[in-house]
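Section 5.1 Outputs to date
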Amino acid sequence: MNLKIEKPSFSIGVDSSYLKPLIVASHERSGTHFLINSINENSKYTNMPILNFDLHPIGDIVNFYSHESIENFFNKLENLKVNRDKVYLKSIIKAHHSASFFENIFKKDSLNFVYIYRNPLDTLISFYKFLHKWPWHEGLKTDSVYSFLKSSPEGQLTRYQYNNVENHFVRWAENVSSWQDAAIKHKNIICISYENLSHDYSSTIKNVFEFLKISSPKVFLKPERTNFIQGKDIKIEDSDLKKIEEFIRISLASYPNLQKLYGNKK
């Protein structure tokens, strides 16, 4: 006797008026939902629901390690129909993969990418706390941020990488660098910093809207902080903080482009 198992379904938001599919990409804990929620608050694009470009919910639809499979998936998103009428994806697509996964679709002018990056100290401390939140093996859980930074990525988080990397700092640096390099080569990618979005909100989000070629409201609404995903509340000892600051300072020397951004910042 065979038992048929139904696959879980997922929903996407669509609209009858023209919208280009929008991918918001980042390294984890870089202000991803801050940016997504900001776009949602001020445009037709929506975060209810987000389309998560990840094993859940689309792991049985997309082979993430096949450029052809990824391209076919995005081709389908550009050709959506409801009752034979053309509709357009308004769900924002969230991705944490390095830029190398999207090489085949950067050439598509019908897609837009916004990449948000954040300084390594705050990103990796937040990421450390975030991994401790989950009961499964999303990634390594250590007793200190310093030991976490020096350790090799493992668990589920490795799905966003093509290759093994030395440690979690290198994973962050390679992710950010890959998108910065891609943005130089392709006009449908813009990179923005979390710090600019946080401290100069209206100007930064206006630049994003101008890049997307969508109309801006008279006043940009800022999303509530309660809508952001929080990590586990873990106290970081001063001695650990000093060690990770020094580790990041030394490690940045291998990435001149990132050192220009963060070499003199804590």
